[in-house]
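[job 4471] stage=fold_predict status=RUNNING
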Amino acid sequence: MLYYLFEFLDENTSLPGTGLFQYISFRSALAFAFSLLISTIYGRKIIDRLRSLQVGESIRDLGLEGQVQKQGTPTMGGVIIILATLIPVFLFARLDNIYIIILIVTTVWMGIIGFIDDYIKVFKKNKEGLKGRFKIVGQITLGAFVGLMLYFNPDVVVKEKLRHGEVVISQELTISSNRFGEAEKSTKTTIPFVKNNEFDYANLLTWMGDWAKDYVWLFFVVIVIFIITAVSNGANLTDGIDGLAAGSSAIIVLALAIFAWVSGNIIFADYLNVMYIPNSGEITIFVSAFVGGLVGFLWYNTYPAQVFMGDTGSLTIGAVIAVIALSVRKEFLIPILAGIFLAENLSVVFQVSYFKYTRKKSGVGKRIFLMAPLHHHYQKRGYHESKIVTRFWIVGILLAVISILTLKVR
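[job 4471] inference complete, writing structure tokens
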């Protein structure tokens, strides 16, 4: 909202400094600062309120060290992250930007689903929470919305770089805007570490004939649903020990901020030879607020945690990460960038599958890990959870650096 106020002041008055709000970098810095202040200052009040409502985590005895001491720690702390993100976004972002609209809907929608799940666990004393099929329906609904918006909305366009012979040369100099074609709808995305790294989803249906092109949107929406569901569940599984999910997510989102900045800036897109996505730079403001909320939440969530994010936070975090990656057309980077989430997801899949397979074969189920998800395996091996979290963060930073290198390493 402040963006529109200062835009009006800049156009109709001579007040100094009003033009600063036209710069994404300035508004991103403000969004981060406000989000961090909200999450740290008001986070304490929210935690106290949750404690007064007896919104305590019910801990299942899994035989893990320090587990019993966490009984009764306030949960639903994801509300802190959500509020600390949305308030600065409403203040500093352009609310008519399609990517901002999609991200706001994603945050609110998954926040509601996670909140219902936590509410059932805490107040209905049902440890299972919201039934899995309802969570899946919620994720599918969100995925369908995001997929349809990204495919059909006229503001979701790309500008592809022209071939050398097509570049328009002015009499004085060649500017970046001359190097890109007209904005157009496209189902293209990018593949990491490949020289000609653009990939068109429509190509997967060409073998069916020209008529199949009319149904590419169905295929695209299914892919979006799968990605959002997978990443959301991965973040949910990662939220098992103090600070792991929030810290890992902050690293991932910071890397995505760089991709959003580069993809939405025609000069950097030209220099790095990447797809230019008009209006996607505005995502940087949302990401800055999101990172501020995550870092502020870590103030209270690092060991020993004073609050847990619950599904209110973890499901929202995963969905937001997936939507940002899809918006900047970097979804194929998710297995690398969100490698921590992937490892946690796969550890559960492999553990359950191998247990069922060996039980069917020999009558006795065997396990690959001492316990799944993966972080519990290391707890069972005697590692303190602070050491596990720190090492997972280090791996996450390494994966983020590798992901950013894909801008040049092909």
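[job 4471] summary: The first strand starts at residue 188 and ends at 190.
[job 4471] exit 0
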